[in-house]
Write a structure and sequence with these properties.
This protein is mostly helical. The chain has two domains: about 55 residues, Homeodomain-like (Arc Repressor Mutant, subunit A); about 160 residues, Tetracycline Repressor, domain 2 (Orthogonal Bundle). About 65% of the residues lie in helices and about 0% in strands. The longest helix is centred in the C-terminal third of the chain and has 22 residues. The two termini are about 15 Å apart. Keywords: DNA-binding, Membrane, Transmembrane, Transmembrane helix.
Length: about 230
């Protein structure tokens, strides 16, 4: 167990502080270590014990919030139909994104490349291991690997969601439309049909749930290590 996990009493105030600051709309480009430690009521050495800079803390906070959101996906969404899975999953995810729009846009402003990569990696693995599309992606023949195909689908999804959050004036009002759009695009882009998913599923053992992201991720850890 890492020191960060063992000493969570020091880490939690930092996570809570930066989450609150970004939720409140602090300018992400002006967020400083001083702002965070003052809000968390911890020392600067405590901050640097866990994180090398603000982007590494923001990355941790974004992953924790994403993990918490995925944990709320209803179990019914992991059932037999792609439509049921996609609707249950994306309704939960997009509603959370819309409700915390200010937070996620700030996160992407502070550390766009790393956070986008983390989100893509996380969603890619969900598609491969926990969705009805997984067996189809694995069995589809071609020069690319299943992971490459899932990454491609996840990257397109994350990009569309980012554009939606940035452009929509009332994202909560648009959630249903975006759910239907993403569900349809992922299905058609994967080359699968509902019938093919049903046929592959009936011939496949139950998918193995994705391992969850550890409660904390050391700063600088590669996204490959994120589940």
């Amino acid at each position: 167990m890492s020191d960060r996990v063992q000493d969570g009493r020091s880490l939690a105030p930092l996570v809570d502080a930066v989450t609150a600051l970004l939720d409140e709309g602090v300018d992400p480009h002006r967020l400083s270590v001083t702002d965070v430690v003052q809000r968390a009521r911890v020392s600067r050495p405590t901050f640097y014990k866990y994180f090398k800079d603000i982007p590494s803390l923001v990355r941790e906070v974004a992953l924790q919030r994403m993990e918490a959101t995925f944990s709320r996906v209803p179990q019914a969404a992991l059932g037999e139909s792609w439509t049921a899975f996609a609707r249950g999953t994306f309704m939960t995810l997009l509603t959370d994104l819309a409700e915390h729009r200010r937070f996620y846009l700030a996160v992407l402003a502070i550390s766009p490349a790393i956070v986008m990569t983390d989100f893509i990696t996380y969603l890619s693995r969900r598609l491969l291991t926990s969705s009805p599309l997984g067996p189809v992606i694995h069995r589809r023949k071609g020069p690319d690997t299943p992971r490459q195909r899932a990454d491609f689908l996840a990257a397109g999804t994350v990009w569309l969601v980012q554009q939606w959050l940035a452009a929509s004036t009332e994202p909560l009002d648009d959630v249903e439309e975006m759910v239907d759009r993403l569900s349809s695009l992922l299905l058609s882009s994967s080359g699968a049909t509902e019938q093919e998913i049903a046929a592959v599923r009936s011939a496949s053992p139950a998918s193995t749930p994705i391992p969850t992201h550890p409660h904390t991720t050391p700063a600088g850890t590669s996204p490959e290590g994120i589940a």
